[in-house]
Design brief:
By secondary structure, this protein is mainly alpha-helical. The protein has 4 helices and no strands.
Length: 106
């Protein structure tokens, strides 16, 4: 319930007058995918969020829903707390974003 995507979905269902019955609630993506695979309900995720191999043949259907106000976010750990791999990712993202902000078309 504390995740942005979950709050976004809750708001969209509420605005549509729908009340979903939550069967499994978890921050672990794999657990949610596996729950849908065994028939405990449906999985709602942003397009492109899951690798096709994770879906193992599950049917996919688009839903008509208001676009999210926030498209992407980076959460950067305080100095010295990020793993070397995640720090490299953050450094690359920062470099890309700085280059984008400095471009004349930005």
């Amino acid at each position: 319930p504390t995740r942005y995507f979950r709050r976004y979905l809750d708001m969209a269902f509420r605005e549509s007058g729908l009340t979903p019955q939550v069967m499994v609630e978890s921050a672990a993506i794999l657990e949610l995918v596996q729950s849908a695979q065994v028939g405990l309900g449906v999985l709602v995720s942003p397009v492109g969020h899951l690798l096709p191999s994770m879906l193992q043949g599950m049917a996919q259907r688009p839903i008509a829903i208001t676009h999210m106000a926030r498209q992407a976010a980076l959460v950067i750990a305080e100095p010295g707390r990020a793993s070397p791999l995640s720090q490299h990712f953050f450094d690359e993202a920062r470099s890309h974003l700085e280059g984008y902000a400095a471009s004349p078309m930005a």
